[in-house]
Amino acid sequence: MGLISFLGFTLLVAGIAWWSTKSTDESSADGYFLAGRSLTAGVIAGSLLLTNLSTEQIVGLNGQAYTEGILVMAWETLAAMAMVVTAIFLLPRYLKGGITTVPQFLERRYDTFTKSLTSALFLSGYVVVLLPIVLYSGAVAFSAMFNLPELMGVSKTTSLWICVWGIGIIGSIYAVFGGLKAVAVSDTINAIGLLIGGLMIPIFGLMYIGDGSISEGVSILVRTNPEKFNSIGGETASVPFATIFTGMMLVQLFYWGTNQAIIQRALGAKNLEEGQKGLLLASFLKILGPLIVVLPGVIAWHIFEGQLEVADEAYPKLVAKVLPASLVGFFAAVLFGAILSSFNSALNSSVTLFGVDIYKEYFNKEADGKQIVKAGKIFGIGLAILAMFIAPKIADAPDGLFGYLQEINGCYSIPIFTIIVVGYLTKYVPALAAKVAMGLGVVLYSISQFLLKPRMAEAAVAKAKAAGITDVAQLADIEKLAYPHFLHVMAILFILNVLIMLVIGLIKPRKEAYEQVYTEQVDITPWKLVNQVGMLITLIVIAIYIFFAN
User: What's the predicted TM-score (pTM) here?
Assistant: First the structure.
């Protein structure tokens, strides 16, 4: 029964996606990369949520919540504020400029090499980090949660390879052959399934705790685990409270406002009003995200009495513990959709970046829309195959790889965000400043996090041991406090790079002031309630933090 419901829901999503996209002209660049600029608010919101939400969050963030409590909700709730900023300030500029990729704006503002460098950084991040990790984490979660090695009578390694290639092949079909609209439509349907399936886990978990009563379950959970319901993280937490005002908002603004894999959904809006509605709807739903990616971790802490050896096992074990057998197939399909979404969305954006920003620029300047799409598809197929070969090898990587995912992304996220911000807010800062900032941003962050930090942490621990400190937990805290949190480092380097760009702009300014060229690709009349709704969402986020502050 479970297998039938899994296959049924998965095939339903594929069928609806095919039916919805068969009339879209995907032989053109706009049709393939931006869904013919036809996406409406609901589709944009659903696609944004599913592009973001995958096993890294569902399993990883619940694992952190199992250990630390709801303070890790910062990764979800603060995203809502970043989407508000994107809707009000960034999206109008993007749509007015008629851009297909964020690097296209950088070409107009700076020069072609800056655009190519940015695209290369995006692609390197997708190829080396995002695509393989999405495949690997999804395969591990899916295989472990539903005990596939035993079900299929194969080893864990074989099960991992089967899951990786299954997810990769199906995701590639959506992303490479279907274009953005197929990805966005399938994301929307899966978003509905994920909201239903994801909410089932905390509901059944609370009922389990409360002996059939959700309200009693909440009461017992809060009463017996008050330390888990504190929104303020201390200095040794994974998200110290101070980082909310430094690097956290920079990371959120980069991700929701400039990351091609995310913003491409809003760039495909039929008009500015629909794009803003989509972003704000997604931001409101993002506030509810902790119910799916944080609360189950706290419930697991209570049910398993904090005895799990591996925190990332909290969510899979909770599902196995509380979910009725009759619903396992549906939940499997929902989880599969979430895994698939992150993979095919990142792959589609990679195809877009290569086709528009690299192939046309360096391989065939005279290429028309059909040629660009064809080249992008070939590149996408190769990229997908490469990611599917790399993903299983992650099992041999050092422990803690997933914990450093956000930290690794800082190598390219902050440099790109810096030149975009300066590009929009100034008129005379030259292309030279952008190149210097990009280079320095990558080099300085890499030196900081992968050279200085390990050495200082090692020295601090050695000094503590020499002083007679042997407690493992105390030594772990000393190691964490030996060097500034990576989010603080991001903020420091952001300010430094901005200042460097401004100084270069003063010394060697552009000859002519930059003026953004406005196109008429879509109607850019803003939604009349965008400011009011944006303010309401911001106040809700602040109220949540105040309510849970201890």
Answer: 0.81
